[in-house]
Amino acid sequence: MKAVHFGAGNIGRGFIGAILQQSGYEVTFIDVNDEVIDRLNQDGKYEVVLADETKESFVVNGVNGINSKENPVAAAAAVAEADIVTASVGPHVLPFIAPVIAKGLSERQAGVSVNVIACENMIGGSDQLKEEVEKHLSPEDAERVFAQAGFPNSAVDRIVPIQHHDNPLTIEVERYFEWVIETTGLKGEQPVLKGALFVENLVPFIERKLLTVNTGHASIAYNGLLKGYKTVKEAMDDPEMIHLLEGVLEETSIFLTGKFDLDKSEHQTYVKKIIERYRNPYISDGLDRVGRAPLRKLSAGDRLTYPAVGLSNHVEPVNLEKTIAAALRFNITEDPEAVQLQEWIKQDGPAAALEKASGIEAGSEMSNRIIGYYQQSN
Ligand SMILES: NC(=O)c1ccc[n+]([C@@H]2O[C@H](COP(=O)([O-])OP(=O)(O)OC[C@H]3O[C@@H](n4cnc5c(N)ncnc54)[C@H](O)[C@@H]3O)[C@@H](O)[C@H]2O)c1
Ligand SMILES: O=P(O)(O)OC[C@@H](O)[C@@H](O)[C@H](O)[C@H](O)CO
After folding, report:
1. Which structural domain range is residue 257 located in?
2. Can you list the GO cellular component terms from the UniProt entry (predicted)?
């Protein structure tokens, strides 16, 4: 069986690529990073190390790579032949991989179904990828392609920090992982994916993950950077940070248990487990990575604004609001979204910038409170 995975980065190699290979697929990675693609073709394998006291490792064999910038025709041909297509490139990159996927899917043999699964931290990732793919197909081709290509949404969870090893393919990951895939979007037979969970309705799973793991992470990153910390570990050693983190997760727990039929005590166990994962002493994760792309993280449907606004009719989400205020201070010059955010703040002031990024109306009660916290944090 053949799998094509877009994005040979941390999650691509450290999680999805490894699961695909363990499930019996030969994996072709498609990326735009020459160093990684050349090394994949040279070695045909790479090592995954588990970040815990065991330091166990395993080899992912039978892999190769295609640089889609240099060879889009070969990349599309791989999609045309694949039994499954997955992606972990980052939500903002989905439009850039869509043309190759569209070309590959339209070249497929008639009647041979395939599933295309976006593995990104976002709600409706595969739906969005499908919309992008559709932009590159004529209406007739779209009808033919989507009759045999499914785009099931999925939720992925495994902490994989930015890291450097002598071999650039080696990747260290936490032992824990969760990959949940929605069956309603599948075409043809359910793919064999070792350790993945197939569910009829992904919404509770993706929202629980995004609004717990990622909202908590964002709180650590934005508030931690304000206090001068550089890593998750440094921030997690500060009782004030823990207090704020627990407050944030209490707020998202109210939101989640109010919206979905989640058992409150099971949810508490889930939250505790995540706090333990943040504390993993074998992982060093930078706050600049965890806070990356602040405009995405502040946007209306993402981990901060969505639960804050969702809660605002019932409770005042003080801790989420403080975290949103701290996000407005995210000022990492290597991060284009941070640069853009700081430009908006400089040009139009923080309330207008907040509205542009999140949709929280300038002058509203919530905006006024957030801007108050923002000013106090100076
Ligand atoms: N790292 C984590 O802990 C983690 C965990 C769960 C989910 N995620 C999600 O997975 C996605 C990827 O995150 P990551 O941490 O692996 O990022 P990453 O930067 O390590 O990997 C992204 C890869 O995509 C490649 N890429 C960029 N443009 C491309 C293009 N046009 N075509 C093909 N490849 C392209 C990059 O070169 C890179 O190798 C994000 O949506 C992230 O939110 C990350
Ligand atoms: O990848 P992002 O930028 O959406 O979020 C940063 C981290 O919170 C994220 O990568 C987590 O490590 C991951 O989602 C854990 O499963």
Report:
1. 204-376
2. cytosol
